[in-house]
Amino acid sequence: MRGVIAFNFRLALIVTIIGGLVIFWLRQTGYPESVEHLLVGSYKLMALGMPLIAVSLTALLWFFAYKNDEGHLAAFVLGWLLLMPALSSSVSESINGQFYSDKEELFFWYVGLSHIMYGLLNAKEVLEGLGKDGY
Hints:
This protein is mainly alpha-helical.
């Protein structure tokens, strides 16, 4: 099972980089299924910045933290960062109705959960990094 989760995580790294760049491109070109309603006012930089932050952090951590089956805490924290847009859009859509792209939401669910599962492969490292004793 560890091998399947590790392989899925490596696949999710590639999907995060490619998908994040695609989402950024679609949002900045005003693709109709994107979150175009966020591309006005003060939310424009946040809506455009999230995919670029995800791509940048993933690329940096790929080279510095994920070597030799390490970086479980970084993957866990980044997984929660990636999962927040999916969680918040689910809550928002349950109140306000559908206005997020299902493809973007699915992307964030997949990469977020993949990062979290990889992080939990070494739960002791994650707990110690979060300030627990890990035992």
